[in-house]
Every structure is written in structure tokens, then in C-alpha cells.
Amino acid sequence: MRARKRSPSSSRLFFVAAVGLLVGTGPLWAQEDANPVTISADVLYGTRYLFAGIPFSGGGVFQPHVAVGASSFTFNFFSNYDLDTDEFNEFDIYADYFAMLSDIVGGYVGAALYNFKHVEQAGEFTLTPEIYAGLSIFTTLTPSIYVAHDFNVGDGTHVYLSLTHGVPVGSVTVSGTGRIEYNADYWRDGSSFGFADFNVSVDVPVGSFTVAPFMVFQAGLDDDFDDFVEGGVRLRADF
User: 191-206 and 209-220: which strand pairing?
Assistant: First the structure.
């Protein structure tokens, strides 16, 4: 495997970004409400912390997350608690703006500032900024494209192409998303199709909360990316 720009024992947002389309903690712009301000809070347990197909933890993690929506803007606050090291090792903020470009096409742009303990720098917290944009066609399979560029530690660009679909089954919703990623020096050295994955989740309403167990099946497409089967559960409340 080629040298990566960041040690796999450090952490970075995976489950919120990579599974957010499935379990409903993505941008709040997908909701239209008479209330101009919406709040979503959730906590996730995952068996491993994957980001852009790369493992950034050796085991389980807890990830608290809060999203505040105001008009077409969404502001997010995220943290990661590593169960191997028994500490919070990441605190992130990110925000985006969404607009419908036609009756079925919507797009968004955003920026993020990630603050994590960089083990290659003696465990000191390190800031790295990123910009991102996405476009979706809101049809049965919701074909989407997502592009992100990191300016510091990640120092590269990656692109996701994805399809997603949800099916109501009684009082629950079963959702699935398939993605393929092209990675150009993003958190590693090298450019190629990196991995493909399939994410499946089940949203189960429990009173005023939603419990969403999920599974992630990943297939590496070059030597920098491994095969994984991981899972977890998210508890979410919307206000």
C-alpha cells in the first residue's frame, strides 16, 4: 500500500458524511417546515470509523452530532469519541447552502473545518479546511454527485457517484445507497477509483426519537483500500 497522508489511528468524519443520506442526519435542507429554524441531534455508535474508504479507528466509536437548519443553510457540529483510547479526538464544524435548481434537481455548496488529534504530530490537535459541493436528481433512485477538496492534511480531491432509495415497510423505512469513489490524492498519495460500497439502514420511530441500525459493505478497488463489513446504530431526535 502507498503511504497515506494521515495515520489510520486518527479520526475523521465517516458515518455522518457517508451514511448521512441513509439515516437522515444529512443537511436539513431536505425538509420544508413552517418553522424557519430546525434542530436535529443524534449520537452514533459505529464498529469502526471509516472515511473516504480508509479506516481511521482500530475499533468502535461514539459520534455526537448536532445540525441546525435556518432557511436554506445548515450548520453542523460533530465530535468523535474513540473507545480504544477513551478520549474525544475530533471536533468539527461544517455548513452548507442548498437550492432547488429545477423541479427535481437540487444542489448545495459548503465548507468544513476539521479539528483532530494528529498522532504524527505528537497527538496535537490539527486544523484542516475543506470545501464541498453536490448535485442530486430527486427521482426514484436519486442519482447524485458529490465533490470535496481538502486544503491541508487531506490535500486532495475526491468524487462520489451514488444512487439511493428508501422504501416504507409498515412504520419503518428501509433505505439503501450504493456509491463509487474516485480519489485524487485525497488523504493518501495516488489517484484512482478507490472503493465502492453499499449502505443499508432501517429507520425505526420510537416515540419522539428515531433508532436507525445500519450496515456498510465496502469493496476496495485499488491497493490503498480494503474490504470491510461494518455497522452500528444511530439515535436521533428532531426538534
Answer: antiparallel
Choose between 20 and 98: higher pLDDT. 98
SS3 content of the chain, % helix, strand, coil (to 5): 5, 60, 30
Residue 9 lies in a domain: no
Q: pLDDT tens digits for 123-170?
A: 678 899 999 999 999 999 999 999 999 999 889 999 999 999 999 999
Question: For residue 1, is pLDDT > 80?
Answer: no
Residue 118 placed within a domain = yes
What is the pLDDT at residue 22?
34
Report the C-alpha gap between 213 and 198 in whole angstroms.
Answer: 14
Containing structural domain, residue 146: 15-238
Contact 92, 114 (CB under 8 A): yes
How high is the pLDDT of residue 120? 60
> Is 136 a member of any domain?
yes
| Residue 51: inside a domain | yes
Number of domains in the chain: 1
Is 134 in contact with 141 (CB distance < 8 Å)? no
- pTM for this one? 0.82
Identify the helix (H) or strand (E) that includes residue 20: helix 20-23
Among residues 64, 57, 65, the alpha carbon closest in space to that of 85 is found at: 57
What is the CATH number for 73? Answer: 2.40.230.20
